[in-house]
Amino acid sequence: MKKILYTLLALVIILATAFYFLVYPKLIIVSGYAAKNMCSCVFVAGMKPDKVRQEDLNFDIIGLADVLVDSVRKSVTASVFGLAPKTAYYLGPTGCALVNRMPAQAAYRYRGNWHIPYYDSLANWFEYIDTIEYLSSAQQQRLQAAVARAFEEDDPQQPRKNTRAALVLYKGQLVAEQYAPGFDKDSRLMGWSMTKSLTASALSLLIKNGRLDPDAPTGIAAWQQDERQQITWKHLLHMNSGLRWQEVYDQVSDAVIMLFDSDSIGAYAMQMPSEYRPNTHWEYSSGTTNILATAMRRYFPDNDSYVRFPYDSLFYRIGMYSLVIETDASGAFVGSSYGWATARDWARIGQLYLQQGNWAGEQLLDSAWVDFVQQPAPNAQGIYGGHFWLNQGGRFPDLPADLYSLDGFQGQKVFIIPSKELVFVRLGLTYHEPDFDFNEWVKGIIDAVE
User: Fold this and answer.
1) pTM above the 0.90 mark?
2) What are the backbone angles phi and psi of residue 233, rounded to the nearest 5°?
3) Which of 222, 264, 304, 385 has the most CB atoms within 10 Å of its CB?
4) Which CATH architecture has domain 189-449?
5) What burial letters (b/e) apply to 368-385, b meaning 16+ CB within 10 Å?
6) What is the pLDDT of residues 426-444, one digit of tens each?
């Protein structure tokens, strides 16, 4: 009898240990993802909780999460069968943040009045006009049909593309625009990793005004006692730091621990050890961008100044009034992932780059920076530049080689094609990348305007 009891006890211990080390960490990630995204969808984007549950959180194991929205406290708590609870809080103009280990009251909140310097001339820049200057009526009809293909589903009962917004700028003019039911030109939509390009754009302003040398080591204090002291800003911009990193989302990895189980996201990424010598190995890394976003903070006298800087110096100056780049609980931008804006405002950043950084006669971005982001990063086989994706390596075989883009999870895209004077925006919830053929879609639009 004792032998049976000992065997059962051993089995229970084995199962409990396996659950704790193999299953429970995944529940933490599920809860964190569900709490953070529900919070942002409701309090930043203004979506209804039921719609978020049915669409944004209804995939893979994320659908297991039980999510409670507290509209009074402006918080969201999620758990899986009551286990691994996580809570995200709406913190004002900097959006929502998961609070994991610090007290909720200690989470960063912007202390001043969030003033948006609103100018009608910028806000109304994209207003659609009946007569499109550069296209014939036949071209416009072909264009509308080509854009509409982004919304067409093979099986409407089991949609796979889930496009929410699509628009096209041609020679600086809005020539086509379409939205899914429930969304319109005023809907804030998630950019996911398109935010990386925004973070790099903000960093470029420090380079432009001479405060930061991209070829200099970062000077990050925690790196000064080992080989990481050799990592430069340019290495990080090119994703060539050599830091160890796991950028996978279907298992417990560096990326998901950073995003969903850390209060200071950039500080978590800074802990990663070197695996390769700088500039010898390209590896896409959300941690790298959050290192950049957090390391920028030391160039400002306080956190409020740091948070206001990219808006006042760049984004509001091109009319991106809807933009929210969320911060973590420590007050650092989650520069890898958490940018929200309307489709029109996402188009603005594409148009700014198409115009070599010039907006209404003012050189906001250095033209040398715009050239830099289009130059292939070492070891990246022509698919990545300075925090922008490239087509020089033939990612999209039927599209021009000079295409470059902001790219994000679930098929978020801003395509910039200088040779065609075109900017495309597509936003939605494509859960499996092959379900949306961007090569075919963009080619159809190019053919329509030529």
Assistant:
1) yes
2) -60, -40
3) 385
4) 3-Layer(aba) Sandwich (3.40)
5) ebbebbbebbbebeebbb
6) 999 999 989 999 999 999 9
